[in-house]
Amino acid sequence: MTDDRYFYPDLPEETAILVGIEFKSDPGSFDVLDSLAELEQLAETAGVRVVGETFQRISTPNSATLIGSGKLAEVLDLLAENNATAILFDEELSPRQQREIEKAVKNEDIKVLDRTALILDIFAKHAHTREGALQVELAQYEYRLPRLTRAWTHLARQAGGGTARGGSGGVGLRGPGETQLEVDRREINRRIAHLKRELEEVRAHRQRHRQKRKTASLSTVSLVGYTNAGKSTLLNALTRLAGPEGKDADVLTADMLFATLDPTTRRVKLPGGREVLVTDTVGFIQKLPTTLVAAFRATLEEIAESDLLVHVVDITHDNAMQQASTVGEVLRDLGVTDRPIITALNKVDLLPDADEVAADLGAEFKDAVAVSAATGQGIEELLSRVEAVMNRNLVTVEALIPYDQGELVNQWHVHGLIQSEKHTSDGVLIRGKLPPHLAAKFRELEEQ
Ligand SMILES: Nc1nc2c(ncn2[C@@H]2O[C@H](COP(=O)(O)OP(=O)(O)OP(=O)(O)O)[C@@H](O)[C@H]2O)c(=O)[nH]1
Ligand SMILES: [Mg+2]
Fold first, then answer.
1. Is residue 203, in this structure, part of any structural domain at all?
2. Domain hosting residue 256, numbered range
3. What is the DSSP code string of 268-288?
4. Residue 273 lies in a domain
5. pTM across the whole model
6. Measuring from atom 1 of ligand 1, which residue has the nearest CA?
7. Quick one: 240 and 131 in the same domain?
8. Among 102, 124, 136, 163, which is least packed by CB within 10 angstroms?
């Protein structure tokens, strides 16, 4: 039973037929069947049971129905045979395609959804911060606005009085209050404008917060990777093994897609004593529509501002290489191309011979370390690699710090490396390394 049916036992179970498409001209890096398997996982995460699937290889998409009419007839048969309540397309449907397919289905109780609607639905379930919830709501309205059809309003009426988040409208209709679907476009537009204003306020607040954090000037590392690769588990392991309090970051980890939506940042101590901030971010997925990428703004800003990326790869996944190249593509789309990257080949505890795999696959990646976020294996090595990259641009400084400025000694310990520390009659004489902006500050001290 899915969460929603636990809380709303009267909800009928939702079942779906999946429809995959492979474009002959551009087959993509994922095999159509692998992509469908992923779509099934997305469906399960959204609380929908898959009862049938089919796919078609096509040269050009049919502008009215995406798939050809013969294939559509087959889908309708599958739907009827299995008594399914939804058709789920693995490709984004244009508003027109969605309408035409709904017309062909001839039953307003059957939902016609695509991958984007499904991902948005999961996001609505998993967004916990105000900004996360607002941006998902905005993305959902923007997605739905051109797709408002009789079928939607009909379902909205059926759902009647459902709570905004409770999911009484079921998959594809969770999130913004279902009753909103009954109002006309003008009102939805008004809501979109309102959400945008609210988001601006929340973002301005976050910017100020980040500015404050910046003045604390710790370097930052972002954990990036395909959804379910183990980023959150790794953040927990890093803070447990090297955090100031030695305990888990308390980030939710789960064997589901998009468990994490809102970024979480924690302090982690590198082997030499220097501290960094590590941020867990939203996972990526293939066929991520640009409208959704925009919704990840909080995460994107974190990634764009970090000094180093740790790319977490689930090395035990059959599609590990395709997933890794998807992450590379998304990063490129986001314009993050100039950042040093360390690859963490995760979940090696599940492999019979971790070293062998690391040696084989490690060659495919730049700067790869085999780790297990679950057992802690390889985490020390990962931390040393992070340290090596972070320390690359430190500069050597020697400074005499007066005893009444003890806070500066502390800063040096946290932000840099200490090679020697001597207590003299005038203060503490330190020789070591610091990030460039702090080095300047300590040199000034020298000149006073
Ligand atoms: N065996 C094993 N399982 C792991 C390891 N790391 C993570 N997992 C499991 O993999 C699943 C996904 O882990 P998460 O940390 O939630 O993955 P994520 O990358 O944060 O995923 P999203 O936030 O959903 O994008 C969970 O069931 C974890 O327990 C590992 O090193 N070994
Ligand atoms: Mg996560």
1. no
2. 218-391
3. EE-TTS-EEEEEE-PPB-TT-
4. yes
5. 0.83
6. 347
7. no
8. 163
**What is the total count of domains within the chain?**
3
Please list every protein residue whose CB sits less than 6 Å from any atom of ligand 1. Answer: 225, 227-233, 253-255, 257-260, 283, 346-347, 349-350, 372-374
Contact between residue 365 and residue 252 where contact means Cβ atoms under 8 Å apart = no
Q: How far is CA 353 from the centre of its chain?
A: 29
Tell me the two tokens of residue 293. Answer: 């990428």
Q: β-pairing, 219-225 with 308-314?
A: parallel
User: Hey, which of 45, 224, 253 would you mutate to test ligand 1's pocket, going by the most ligand atoms within 8 Å of its Cβ?
Assistant: 253
| Cβ neighbours of residue 285 closer than 8 Å, sequence gap 6 or more | 38, 119, 226, 227, 257, 258, 326
Q: Is residue 190 part of a domain?
A: no
Domain end position, chosen among 132, 166, 182? 182
Instruction: Say yes or no: 414 and 316 in one domain.
Output: no
Question: Is 83 inside a domain boundary?
Answer: yes
Q: What is the domain-level CATH number for residue 243?
A: 3.40.50.300
